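JOB MANIFEST
job_type = single_chain_structure
chain_count = 1
residues = 780
[input]
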Amino acid sequence: FLTILLLWGEAGSETIRYSMPEETESGYLVANLEKALGLRVGELATRGAQIHYKGNKELLQLDTETGNLLLKEKLDREELCGVTEPCLLHFQLILENPVQFFQTDLQLTDINDHSPEFPHREMLLKIPENVQPGTVFPLKAAQDSDIGNNAVQNYTVSSNLHFHVVTLSRADGRKYPELVLDRALDREEQPELTLTLTAVDGGSPPRSGTTTVRIEVLDINDNAPQFVQSLYEVQVPENSPVNALVLTVSAMDLDAGIHGNVVYSLFQGGGASQPFVIDGVTGEIRLSKQLDFEVTNHYNIEIAATDGGGLSGKCTVAVQVLDVNDNAPELTIRKLTSPIPENSLETVVAVFSVSDPDSGDNGRVVCSIQNDLPFLLKPTFKNYYTLVTEGPLDRESRAEYNITITVNDLGTPRLTTQHTITVQVSDVNDNAPAFTQTSYTLFVQENNSPALRIGTISATDSDSGSNAHITYSLLPTHDPQLALSSLISINADNGQLFALRALDYEALQTFEFRVGATDQGSPALSSQALVRVLVLDANDNAPFVLYPLQNASAPFTELLPRAAEPGYLVTKVVAVDRDSGQNAWLSFQLLKATEPGLFTVWAHNGEVRTSRLLSERDAPKHRLLVAVKDNGDPPRSASVTLHVLLVDGFSQPYLPLPEVAPDSVQDDNVLTLYLVIALASVSSLFLFSVLLFVGVRLCRRARETSLRDCSLPEGHFPGHLMDISGSGTLSQSYQYEVCLKGGTGTNEFKFLKPLFPNLQTQATAEERENAPVRNSFEFY
């Protein structure tokens, strides 16, 4: 297994190198990686290709659709690599499914974009006048950030009679100038000379920089200082404190007096700034700022020793910076997948890289995670690791993992970096919603207001997210007579049940239906529960008097023989109540009578009986007001008016009308007579129209129904149907059709089912006198 892994790593670590000049404009096409790697068109996009550069700075941009590797911004070779040659930028190409790595190097070639620059605008040389021709005077070299041919290649000096400049090369290839005396100086003739030194690079076109060389001619000083060593080498740990002693240099001058006093100075540092200072008297070189091995690991310092006569010598100090373990390992997450499904196997959770800028064992790292987690760390490519699941996860037992990745280096002392990532486990819809009850029983008072909440059903789902988001619904009912959608609605979000309209106990006492709870998973899971609704009765119907009828055009009159015994049954008030229970228990009461004490009404059956013998002094005509009351809360009632006519025998159908007093007739004038005639004419015409309309309607209704024929009796037949309704919000009413018929000697009551679903409130009719009626009734 180890051999296969190593071979796989070697196969995936082949380096692809491209080259381009620095300062190329952004958007430059570096290469087409699909063609270079032999991949299919579009494979980079499907495998989630990513380009990573050290430090996470995005220098290149990969177009995964076309496979083109483009330059995202201008690249400055001097900024990225300094003097390092060749300048290579290392990139990693990461592919997924499966995970695969490719090493890509981009070499930046130098262009001549920097001109040579001298460290000072003016250089001062103090030269004794007795210096012999051919004497060489070192000059400070110009600095050029470019490299190779684009660096400084030649030095020239302005035309003069005494000096020329020669260009020499150091061991590292850098050019430096030296001024050569061609003709002896004469202080008395010319005490000072000013020359222009020009540095020219080898670019195309070439760039140049200049400085002024001012020469002071001194009096005789024939010995220049000499260093004990021309090259000093020293090693300094990078964690050395500021002002720490690096090295002490020493130079000697054979001259005496002022010409033998040597002063030390930093002559040429090889860079814009050096972290060193030198004591001009003692020659001690100390640190002026902190060293950093990761930035610069070596320095070349040139030290000049100058005597009082202006002569100088130089030496080179090579400082090697020693690395210490002062950098903790760095961990960079390249890819993090969260959440991950709970049923996934060996899923790549994270891809990360580790690095340590230290060197040697200080830069070697070891990665680890906690042992009690179902995850594994797998090394993949160089310093890249993948974090994968070891087996299937269970969100219900643990929905989140905090994974701490620990990176240790092998330095002394060891430094540690920890990075904690949080991995969420996403839910899989493996649990159906469960109702808190298998069945629900709800009680609703009838005549409820529309949109009344009658109850709530509830279900739970142990899943999470959309898999636990439950939607409630009404399931289709198998009862074709139950219009469930017009009775009940359900809130799909919280399971609240609402009655869409007022319920009527008399029409619908109980019904049941099923509700469903469905989650939002894929595929969706659901469950069902039974809901039973019981409608509670309310006292919303007043008693309805079936007999005697109160909507006749003429009042109904009962005949009572004067020879009737006490307890004689005069008539019976028949009433019904559409409510149930105690709301339908009826009681009868005599409210008002023409002759108190003559009649009694039985409270439970409505029978009207005489309470004593009749006498001659009793009025021949009596009016009784009987109340019918139910036992509801609050109670409802209805009243009926009875007319009783005393006769000597059943052969006397009526009594003569009382005579009108002559005085009242004499008071009427002609105007009153005309008014009465006009009112009588209008009333007669209206009554005739109403009777004709009612008669046509009754005949048409008789033909449409299957009831047996009913012949109209003699006299006035009531021209409309009796309508009764309660004060509630019932959606249905009942009408009863009454047919008066003679030819029988007993009172018969026959009831049929309601003919029309429209029940209107019947107000108690006032008495209309002197209307002959028959003494036999039949109700159909």
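[summary]
The mean pLDDT is 80.
The CA atoms of residues 160 and 779 lie 151 Å apart.
exit_status = 0
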